[in-house]
């Protein structure tokens, strides 16, 4: 353990406020002076007292102060000077990187980069228009046909953003009188979509077909359209969606099914073709397959594959997804197509990904670390309860040459704060084993630190 990390631990352990408080009590570190409850806002200050703005500013100031006091580099918004590979250049040194969902190492692959450059030279940096009005280029349709075939669907649509794909599709398809029935761990983009739609949202217990059946028995009759929304690979917990079973339950109650493949395409299935291949499902078992181009395919953006009429309607009329928005940058679509080529041509990348995943998970479990409900996938959460404890572990790892992000509420429940490690096909065995040893050492130290709230 480095001296600055030890010094921070000593300061936290010796804090007189902590020693004077009962063991179970949470001590809150607050700024010396609070802003007036209703100060005059004035020009440029209309949102200074907005609850979320004020809370975020306060938290960022506290984190900055702790970083300055301890001498540890703040791992948040860390500027990077290299591709987001397994080793990155940041903070004037090289770091072993576990914060990139570049699962197959494709984002800087020479073929992917060359394809992006060729598209840049041919079509420019931007589509500069919506696709319906002068923005269309052949690259879009070529990739969409391949994605539609991958899911055995009538058509597909590529988009500028995975988040907006979920939000925009749900916002377009559902409305008041409809319901979205969601896994309790569903991504926030789906929640945004239900708010946009004005429909009801009902959650069922994570990955629990019996819970879904109970929810649908009680509620299905009260709504017109019902859409069950699932994920293939849950990004905070490293669990695999029980998509085949849950989709079958949805069909019992005349529900449509939408599956978010953001973290499962390129990861799950013998060839990395996603949750459909993982369960040997028919394409028609699911109505809407959504995914991203920014994870295993090494590019940026999203896509949705479905019935041809449905896709045609969304391309022409879905605000925020296609209509009234610029087409994706040509370079990103060309890069994603090259990534898909490599996924198909080099299946050994998927095999390496899973071999590395087993190595890392086994090493962590041998140290007795808390991996929550994860199922041994390339998304590896290590539970470190307490926002500042998790931040301390992340910052100390960074000082020792390992970059892994800390996740706190509201992204995960309070008390379930964690570090999240993304494993890739390009990590080495030595990187994985040495990181597991270091992590165990730092978590043990963090366990001795009483929790101090960052706000």
From TrEMBL:
Q: Does the keyword Iron-sulfur apply?
A: no
As its record notes, the protein acts as a catalyst of: 6-carboxyhexanoyl-[ACP] + L-alanine + H(+) = (8S)-8-amino-7-oxononanoate + holo-[ACP] + CO2
Q: Which cofactor does it need?
A: pyridoxal 5'-phosphate
Q: Which family does it belong to?
A: Belongs to the class-II pyridoxal-phosphate-dependent aminotransferase family.
- Give the matching Gene3D superfamilies: Aspartate Aminotransferase, domain 1, Type I PLP-dependent aspartate aminotransferase-like (Major domain)
* Protein's name according to its UniProt entry: 8-amino-7-oxononanoate synthase
Q: Which SUPFAM superfamilies match?
A: PLP-dependent transferases (SSF53383)
Organism this protein belongs to: Nocardia otitidiscaviarum
Tell me the segments the record calls region Disordered: 18-47
Record keyword Ligase present: yes
Instruction: Please list the GO terms describing molecular function.
Output: 8-amino-7-oxononanoate synthase activity; ligase activity; pyridoxal phosphate binding
Per UniProt, the keywords (alphabetical) are:
Acyltransferase, Ligase, Pyridoxal phosphate, Transferase
Q: What is its EC number?
A: 2.3.1.47
């Amino acid at each position: 353990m480095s001296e600055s990390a030890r010094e921070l631990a000593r300061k936290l352990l010796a804090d007189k406020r902590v020693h004077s408080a009962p063991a179970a009590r949470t001590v809150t570190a607050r700024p010396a002076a609070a802003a007036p409850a209703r100060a005059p806002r004035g020009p440029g200050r209309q949102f200074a007292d907005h609850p979320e703005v004020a809370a975020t500013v306060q938290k960022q100031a506290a984190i900055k102060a702790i970083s300055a006091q301890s001498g540890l580099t703040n791992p948040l918004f860390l500027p990077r000077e290299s591709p987001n590979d397994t080793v990155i250049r940041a903070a004037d040194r090289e770091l072993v990187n576990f914060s990139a969902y570049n699962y197959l190492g494709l984002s800087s692959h020479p073929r992917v980069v060359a394809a992006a450059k060729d598209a840049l030279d041919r079509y420019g940096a931007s589509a500069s228009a919506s696709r319906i009005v002068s923005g269309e280029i052949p690259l879009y349709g070529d990739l969409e046909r391949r994605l539609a075939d991958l899911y055995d669907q009538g058509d597909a649509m590529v988009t500028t953003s995975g988040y907006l794909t979920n939000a925009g599709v749900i916002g377009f398809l559902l409305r008041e009188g409809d319901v979205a029935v969601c896994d309790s761990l569903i991504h926030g983009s789906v929640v945004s979509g239900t708010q946009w739609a004005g429909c009801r949202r009902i959650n069922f217990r994570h990955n629990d077909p019996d819970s879904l059946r109970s929810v649908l028995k009680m509620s299905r009759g009260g709504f017109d359209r019902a859409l069950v929304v699932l994920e293939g690979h849950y990004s905070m917990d490293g669990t695999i969606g029980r998509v085949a079973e849950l989709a079958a339950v949805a069909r019992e109650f005349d529900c449509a099914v939408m599956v978010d493949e953001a973290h499962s395409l390129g990861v799950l299935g013998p060839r990395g073709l996603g949750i459909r291949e993982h369960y040997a499902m028919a394409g028609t078992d699911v109505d809407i397959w959504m995914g991203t181009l920014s994870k295993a395919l090494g590019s940026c953006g999203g896509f949705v594959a479905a019935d041809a009429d449905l896709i045609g309607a969304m391309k022409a009329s879905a605000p925020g997804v296609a209509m009234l928005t610029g087409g994706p940058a040509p370079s990103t679509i060309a890069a994603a197509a090259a990534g898909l080529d490599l996924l198909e041509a080099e299946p050994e990348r998927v095999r390496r990904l899973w071999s590395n995943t087993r190595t890392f998970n086994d090493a962590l479990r041998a140290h007795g670390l808390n991996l929550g409900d994860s199922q041994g996938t390339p998304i590896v959460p290590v539970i470190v309860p307490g926002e500042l404890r998790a931040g301390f572990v992340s910052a100390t790892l960074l000082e020792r040459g390992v970059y892994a992000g800390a996740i706190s509420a509201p992204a995960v429940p309070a008390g379930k704060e964690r570090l999240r490690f993304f494993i890739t096909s390009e990590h080495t065995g030595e990187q994985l084993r040495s990181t597991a040893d270091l992590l165990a050492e730092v978590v043990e130290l963090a366990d001795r630190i009483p929790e101090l709230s960052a706000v």
